[in-house]
Amino acid sequence: MRMRLVRWSGLSGIFGSILSLVMVFAATIISPWFRWDTNALSEMGVGEVSILFNSAMIIDGFFNFLFALGIREYLRKESLAKYGTFLIILGSVSLTLVGIFTISYPILHRIFALGTFVLPPTGFILIGFSSEQPPIKKLSITTGIAALIVILVLPVILLALPFNVGFAVPEIIWSLIMATWIIFIGIQLLRYP
Description:
- The protein is mainly α.
- It contains seven helices and no strands.
- The chain has one domain.
- Helix 3 packs antiparallel against helix 4.
- The radius of gyration is 16 Å and the shape is globular.
């Protein structure tokens, strides 16, 4: 039973990450007004592509939730990992709520977006410090820090540039960093004995 949970959760993480990225990129292509130099991704949560975009958030949040349950089981002997997976679970719930409370609900949307952007990478870092497996340790700390820098520092740097870059750029870079970690860990879970 435990082995099956861990493996299914690995598959959930991989599938959810890939599917949601495909859906978000499709929404950016289909949207008649979206521009990388002026928009945030969340702006697609209302309008012509809202169903596609919001579904991507809800689906990814759901599959990441399942994924986090498997990580918790996989790393159950590593002390800080339980706190890290708890943060990933909270981030997954936040991501789902981003797809429900769109920018039409600005206060709730910002709260859940902040949870989505900050909680999982912080969880990665805790998992990294807890892990006794060198590849997981190194990747978790590196991707956690990189994701936090991209979402918290890069937007400030971009404001100083002589050309426009929308918040969607740091958001998609953040998403790709997160997907890298999830797919790597998902593969580890699929190989679980």
